[in-house]
Amino acid sequence: MGDLKPQEIETAEFIVEVFGEEDKKLDGTLLGKFMFCMNINPSQERLKTAGLTTKKGEKVFTVEELLNLYKELKKEVKDFGCYEDFVECLKLYDKNENGYMLAGELNHSLLTLGEKLTEAEVDELFDTCLDEENDDGEIPYTPFLRRMCELDPPLKPSKK
Asked: Residue 27's beta-bridge partner residues?
């Protein structure tokens, strides 16, 4: 696999072993999960053009096909930042510099900036990761980000 490190190949094989079928193939619905496990995070649009499916059994990938896609997507995907970068971004909304921001501003940001989320996705994210608002409509943003980045467990399991 030319440009790939032995550890990347080994990781891909392990992912397919864990999430794949007995025939060592991975269902197309799991393409995003595969790429996330390989430490890249392409957009949903890009995953769809690469073969992401919504129905199980519609498409399957061999390890070799997945590695070729990974190689291609790895070149395209930018560094989307890490937890610390997200904290710095939300500090911009922390008007009192006390670790809190308005829940409405977070909601608006998720719906309108970057790779926009749908209302349902934001509701799910808030349901699983967001603490209750205080009397001023503010939420502590660092616990939210820790849960969102999976550094801490969610408040309650995802509905998916």
From this structure: 60
